[in-house]
Amino acid sequence: MATLQSGLMRGQVSRMGSTQRRAAMAVPRQIAGLRRDVSAQASTAKFFVGGNWKCNGTHASVEKLVADLNAGDVPADIDIVVAPPFIYIDYVRANIKGAYAVAAQNCWMKPDGAFTGEISAEMMDDAGVPWVITGHSERRLLLGESNRTVGLKTGHALEAGLSVIACVGETLEQRNGGNLYHTLDLQLQALFENVQDWGKVVIAYEPVWAIGTGVVASPEQAQEVHAYVRKVLGDRLGKATSEGIRIIYGGSVTDANCAELATQDDIDGFLVGGASLKAPAFINICNARGAVKA
Ligand SMILES: O=C(CO)COP(=O)(O)O
Known about the structure:
- This is Triosephosphate isomerase.
- The chain is about 40% helix and about 15% strand.
- The chain contains 13 helices and eight strands.
- The chain has helices at about 1-5, 20-25, 60-70, 85-95, 120-125, 135-140, 145-160, 170-175, 180-190, 220-235, 240-245, 260, 280-285; strands spanning about 50, 80-85, 100-105, 130-135, 165-170, 200-205, 245-250, 270.
- Bound molecules: 1,3-dihydroxyacetonephosphate.
- 1,3-dihydroxyacetonephosphate binds near residues 250, 271, 272 and 273.
């Protein structure tokens, strides 16, 4: 229990239900040591906050969320992107203020054709949607998207002119089985095989065990993985490129835990699920580092 407590934010455990507590107890605070020295690199990137609304909302609730986001003060010197369900994207795009860009939560990997139910990156570009999320763990795990599929979608979206938030992250079984870095290596390799222009890619590290569980990675746990990802990027792309790529953290981020996470050298922002549906919390997360207001 001491290990669990020390790995979580203060007060978090007492607010959890029993299922969440069990999940939290299975999360080791100390993960296997890094295979390489990662201390030589640090981020120079602009802070980035994404709100992934997932499959949530009604027209009425989306209208209210947009109005509430429009009423809030957010920093002018960061990037903020919200990802509504497809059917509400155009409404949000047309009505949200300029501080926020919109994203789709998925895209297809061909421009057009007989792909019933899919929406292509070209269509998003045509409809004024500049961002897309690829490789979210819910699509990997619930819809069977492989590393290869995620790589192809990411590469295709970039070629179609979109910017991409590409998600990586391990399950609890992978972490506990000592496969954290191997899992990340394979996920990143699929991106290396398909991405030409890294200037339009944000990487979201989202440990599956932290998504929607209330069990946030500790700042040290998140930093350790972010530093590893940046080192891998640096080895493949060069130090200057890797330092400019945003590596953001997702998994039970709230306005209570974001400030401490944001102090870590290699945490360049957040991808927020549940808390992005509440405007005051999301606005507070956008202000996690404190900055000049828009
Ligand atoms: O999956 C996530 C963002 O993409 C994280 O979700 P939660 O913030 O609800 O844990």
